[in-house]
Amino acid sequence: MKRLPKVGDHANISFIVTDQHIIDFADAELPPVLCTPWLIWFLEHAAREAVLPLLDADESTVGSRIDVEHIAATPPGQSVTCTARVIHTDGPVISFQLEAHDPHEKIARGTHKLCIIKKHRFAKRVNEKSDR
Question: CA 88 to CA 69: how far, in whole Å?
Fold first, then answer.
């Protein structure tokens, strides 16, 4: 690592909710809205973006824990901004506070942990599992 992340380091990812991001069980009574798995995907990537500039070429990140409350619905066509802010570091484990907002309100909050890994070590362990 070039340097450890500092408390307060953050990154944002914004996106527009499209048909790809909506629940697959919408019907005449239940309107289409952003699904939780896609929201979590964008929140996790915001955390990753906060750390990527600090990594050496042989490093990457993997998520190890996420706790997200999806507290408000967002319909297709609306923008969403996901923010990940570093709140703690413990060696290669970085903890984040997560938030997401649409133009009207906060839609999610939570926490996330990322681990910094060496790509070759990670690949070796995965390949050993694949070879069994």
Answer: 20
pLDDT in tens, the chain (132 residues): 889 999 999 999 999 999 999 999 999 899 999 999 999 999 999 999 999 999 999 999 999 999 999 999 999 999 999 999 999 999 999 999 999 999 999 999 999 999 999 999 999 999 999 876
Q: What is the pTM of this model?
A: 0.94
* Four-residue CA torsion sign, 32, 104, 42, 72: negative
Specify the CATH number for the domain of residue 85.
3.10.129.10
Q: Does any domain span residue 46? A: yes
- The token pair that represents 10 in the structure block: 């953050």
CB contact set of 36 (below 8 Å; sequence gap of 6+) = 68, 70
Domain that holds residue 124: 10-131
List, in sequence order, every residue forming a beta bridge with 118; answer none if it has no partner.
59
Give the pair of three-digit tokens for residue 61.
């990140």
